């Protein structure tokens, strides 16, 4: 295979996802490890790690597992050298819609973070530490 293969613990450390979460993403078909060791352990490539990081980024923005799967498929279509022009255009349109949605979710999260900071500052007046 040539690429560095990582065991699930190393992938967990790199992605800041729990081992349980990574296994779940494998079970639901979001990110399948690229290989297995002779002992049956999951082995991941950097491309697999990149997909897991993309999922980690989508989760707080409210994307469902199916929506995450669709985003990853669109990215795969654009990365593929043999995708048709129609498939590429559909993938670009889909990713543009997801981008708009992500921007809206970021705006909401930014507003919520401001509220949390206001409360933290208000409570700090009563802190003994």
From TrEMBL:
Originating species: Mycolicibacterium chlorophenolicum
Single Gene Ontology MF annotation: DNA binding
InterPro entries according to UniProt: DNA-bd_dom_put_sf (IPR009061), MerR-type_HTH_dom (IPR000551), MerR_fam (IPR047057)
UniProt keyword DNA-binding present: yes
Signal peptide positions on this chain: none
Protein name: HTH-type transcriptional regulator HmrR
Keywords noted in UniProt: DNA-binding
Span of domain HTH merR-type: 5-74
Alphabetical list of Pfam families matching this protein: MerR_1
């Amino acid at each position: 295979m040539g690429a560095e293969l990582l065991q699930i613990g190393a992938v967990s450390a790199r992605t800041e996802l729990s081992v349980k979460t990574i296994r779940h993403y494998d079970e639901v078909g979001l990110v399948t490890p690229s290989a297995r060791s002779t002992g049956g352990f999951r082995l991941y490539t950097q491309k697999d790690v990149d997909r897991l990081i993309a999922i980690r980024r989508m989760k707080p923005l409210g994307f469902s597992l199916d929506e995450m799967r669709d985003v990853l498929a669109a990215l795969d279509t654009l990365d593929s050298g043999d995708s048709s022009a129609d498939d590429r255009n559909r993938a670009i349109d889909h990713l543009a819609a997801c981008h708009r949605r992500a921007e809206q979710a970021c705006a909401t999260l930014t507003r919520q973070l401001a509220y949390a900071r206001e409360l933290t500052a208000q409570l700090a007046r009563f802190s003994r530490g």
